[in-house]
Automatic annotation (TrEMBL):
It is found in: Cytoplasm. This is PTS mannose/fructose/sorbose transporter subunit IIB. Pfam families: PTSIIB_sorb. Keywords: Cytoplasm, Kinase, Phosphotransferase system, Sugar transport, Transferase, Transport. Residues 1-164 form the PTS EIIB type-4 domain. Signal peptide: none annotated. It comes from the Bacteria. Coiled coil: none annotated.
């Protein structure tokens, strides 16, 4: 059912629409994001960026969990997109049979903590110390978790990228 869970703060954009949706062969994309679920303008922009080859659903994190746990979802090939590590943890706590977690783009546009700069872990991965703690919790679920911006990039174990 779930082919890939991707953490990407930009949600749907060119890399997801063109590269990841084709690479995974999905027929459904579930965007699990509270802000997008409640904002028609964000929804419209995400739908414009979405690939024509997959049906897109934009739901709150809680509603996404309900959808992904529904037995009717089992007949689909699903790419789940989450924008931050805290929401990823919520998904992992509730949804089973996730084969792979891909961390692609995070920390450039995520909410800032005053003037404090995030530490650089990759060309597209920046995190505060407490976000690294969230990533450690993600790793504790025992699911293969890689840092990989595009399918053409070599996947790196997230633990290695974070220096854990």
């Amino acid at each position: 059912m779930i082919k890939l869970v991707r953490l990407d703060e930009r949600l749907i954009h060119g890399q997801v629409a063109i590269k990841w949706s084709r690479h995974t062969g999905v027929d459904r994309i579930v965007v699990a994001n509270d802000e997008a679920a409640g904002n028609k303008i964000i929804q419209q922009s995400l739908m414009m960026a979405a690939p024509a080859t997959a049906k897109v659903t934009i739901r709150s994190v809680a509603d996404s969990i309900t959808l992904l746990k529904d037995p009717r979802a089992a007949g689909h090939k699903i790419l789940v997109i989450i924008s931050n590590p805290k929401d990823l943890i919520k998904i992992l706590e509730e949804v089973k049979e996730i084969p792979l977690i891909n961390v692609g783009n995070y920390g450039r546009i995520a909410p800032k903590q005053g003037d404090l700069a995030r530490r650089t872990y990759g060309s597209n991965l920046y995190a505060y110390d407490e976000e690294v703690e969230d990533f450690k919790k993600v790793l504790s679920f025992g699911i293969d978790t890689v840092y990989q911006t595009t399918p053409e990039d070599n996947p790196e174990k997230l633990s290695k990228v974070l220096g854990l």
